[in-house]
Amino acid sequence: MPLTRERLDLILRLTDLTSLELTDTPESIAALCARALRPDPSDATVPSVAAVCVYPRWVKVAAAELAGTGIAVVSVVGNFPSGVASVAEKVAEAEQAIADGATELDLIVDHVAFAGGAEQGLSDEVAAVRAASPGVRLKVILETGALAGPVPVRLAADLALEAGADVLKTSTGKGHPGASPAAVAVLLDAVSEYAVRHGRQPGIKVSGGVRTVEGALLYLDPAERALPALTPATFRIGASALVTAVVEARRAL
Questions:
Q1: What is the per-residue pLDDT for 152?
Q2: Which residues does the annotation mark as catalytic?
Q3: CATH code of the domain containing 120
């Protein structure tokens, strides 16, 4: 498929513009939100992104900056990026993020415990955070690059979906391999088969290492074939540098 302005705009509309740095400040988060709203300040026809994704401590700042824009405010929760925390701690963090203005949650599960055989633990933490976040889109980070191949990735995906996940997210982008075509193919199969069984279409979020237009299309194209439609409910890309790459490609057309 040829690269068009419409294709590039679609990438932007499906992007969670992300900053998860220890050096983040109120000023840098405000700048992130301004970039989310106007990815190209020189061209008002460039669409806004789907969401911004930040640490819990910056949710209030992002929510204030984005009020009334329609851009979602995403908070990572679950003791990001390790995922090592009690269920009660994860629920408390989720509840606080929502109180501060988060409209979506990216929950990191304890993938180390899961890989060690604690399958019920994954189900329990997702179900508990799901119960604590009615009306809030729940994305569950499986850290696919830390799991030993397609079988555990599919098991984690199925458990998360049955426990109430709205979206399956590949990776934290911190300390483990990020997204891969193989892992995304497994997640697409999982959400497609779940939709057939339950009549509800979950989505996927590709995160970790997607920095170029070509990298985005590597995942966008198979998702378009597998999913009934590409919308912010069914497909996201978590990225930062990608937005600059898309804007530059759009200017070059």
A1: 98
A2: 106, 169, 205
A3: 3.20.20.70
